[in-house]
Structure formats: C-alpha cells, structure tokens
Amino acid sequence: MITVENLTKRYGAQRAVDDVSFTCEPGTVTGFLGPNGAGKSTTMRMICGLTPPTSGSATVSGVPYRRLGNPGRHVGVLLDASAQHAGRTGRETLALAAMTMGLDTARVPERLARVGLNATAGKRRVRAYSLGMRQRLGLAYAMLGDPAVLILDEPANGLDPEGIFWMRGLLREFADRGGTVLLSSHLLREVEAVADRLVMIGGGRILTQGDKDVLLGAGGTVVRPEDPAAFDALLRRLELTGSRSADGTVLVQSEPAPIARAAAATGVVLLEVRPAGAGGLEEMFLRLTGTTDPTEVTR
Ligand SMILES: Nc1ncnc2c1ncn2[C@@H]1O[C@H](COP(=O)(O)OP(=O)(O)OP(=O)(O)O)[C@@H](O)[C@H]1O
What we know:
Blueprint (H helix, E strand, L loop, with lengths): L1 E10 L2 E11 L3 E6 L6 H8 L7 E6 L14 E4 L11 H11 L7 H7 L4 H5 L7 H13 L5 E5 L7 H16 L3 E5 L3 H7 L2 E6 L2 E7 H5 L4 E5 L2 H11 L3 E3 L5 E3 L3 H11 L3 E6 L4 H10 L5 H4 L1
Parallel strand pairs: 3-7, 3-8, 5-6, 6-7
Antiparallel strand pairs: 1-2, 1-4, 8-9, 10-12, 10-13, 11-12
Helix pairs in contact: 9-10
C-alpha cells in the first residue's frame, strides 16, 4: 500500500509537484502518467525519501519510507537504471544488496535468471550492460528482498518489445499475488495493457485518477465545435454542461446522437463527435494534458 497525501514540492517559484494525493492498493498496478516534466520522478523520489517535500506526506505500508527498517524487504525501488556501480558485475551487485538486507546470497543466480540474465551476463561488469540489461538488473535488485511494494520509474526504458511483454507479465504476477505496484511510463499502450488504476499528472497537478476501465469507459461524448461560443449556447439550451479540454474539445455528459441532432437542427458546426474513451488511453492523455504532438508523449 502506498499513500500520498497533499504532496507538494517547490523549486523556487516553480511547483514541480502541487498538492498531489493518491493511493496504490495491494493487488493492483497503478500507472503513473504525465508528459515530460509533469512531476512523476519528483513524486516518486519524495515517496522514497530521496527528495524532501515542501509539504504533504507519503507512506509505504503505513510508514514513511525513511522510517522503514531494512527498506529493501518492504519496498523495491527502481528510479534510475544507470544508478548501479558500473565496475561491479551483475552478480556482485545483487550479492552486495542481499548482504545489506541480511539475505542469503545463494538466491542471487536464481534471481538473475528470473529477469533473463544468464550466468554469463551475471559475470559481466555493469558498464558493459545495455540499457535493457540494466533495467532487468534493476528489477532483480528491486525484487530481491521479496518486498510487498514496487516503485518503478520508467522500467520499460531500453527494453525491446519482447522485454516489455515479459515485464508486463512479471508485474501482473507480482500484483496478482497481492503486491502493490506504482509504475511510471511514457509508453501509454504498455500502461494501458498492465495497469488496473491510473494517476495522470500534468504541471505538477493531478489531472485525473481512478480505475482504468472506469476512466476509459467513462460515459459522455467528446465534441470539437467550430465555434465554442455557439456550442456553449447550444449546451445551455439542452440544459447540459460540458468541460473544455486544453485541445479545444468539450466533454459532454450525454449520448452523441442528441447532441449531433440538436447541433444539426440549429446550424452549429461540429468538427468531431464521438463517444469518450473510444480512443483509449492515448486519446485521454492527449486531451487532458493538452499535448498536441503525439511524438512528445510516445517517445
Ligand atoms: N532538483 C531540481 N531543481 C529544480 N527543478 C527541478 C529539480 N528536479 C525537478 N525539477 C523540475 O520539476 C519539474 C518536474 O520534474 P520531474 O523530473 O519530476 O518530471 P517528470 O514527470 O518525471 O518528467 P520526465 O518524464 O521528463 O522525467 C520539472 O519542471 C523539472 O525541471
């Protein structure tokens, strides 16, 4: 269980994270999404006690991270795949971590194999690892102490499609056994495939959060009017309300047909009318973050 309450981080006048609250429950994978610079890494670093919050608090299994005794036994953290000592081998890296956590180093070869690093790879120095191999080692490191919680910042970075598919299975299995996963990623389709819950953040603030199926299946219609003022007047006549998004679309809590018919009857031009959620996570992300260039978020 991860609980984040009103977390705020200011750097000078800038609010990198602004009053962010969410919880991650056991047995679920929570996808943490947002464009570059949204505040994901800063939030995760605050949860892990690496960055002090300006205000607010975060707990893991009910305790602030810094007060967890032997934290690696409670929460596995992967914030930067390149953080491992480059001069050590993969095996040495895990053996040292096992010793620090008071665990038998005999588990190391099996743990390396579990993330797809064979005996030869285990004997190589980390500096010779590809980014994908570092991510795999980072995951083995995070899971070494059999924690109940995983906090992973962009763990799919550097993995090939087969590796991403493998990681999805690993995280699903971890959550299905009762584990809690908080996973940030810019790979929206991967998040959509594995996450049960979504927390979307932009400019340091929560844009939306909730059950993935509910968010993506949320009722309503997305409309792109040619003349926003004329469309607002139409909505008032229909006694409906709409919420305008950064990309110029309006989400209206109604079926598409009545809106389209009323618009046609009154000569209000609609450039787009479709059920909300039909475009999946990518569409929801672009609408909420107001990012118009998809390459910005699918990089
Ligand atoms: N140590 C720091 N000093 C000043 N500003 C910072 C610092 N760390 C982060 N920021 C700023 O805070 C904002 C949020 O950054 P953060 O790295 O948390 O975003 P992010 O969502 O993880 O983005 P990315 O996906 O690009 O890593 C950014 O504008 C960033 O420039």
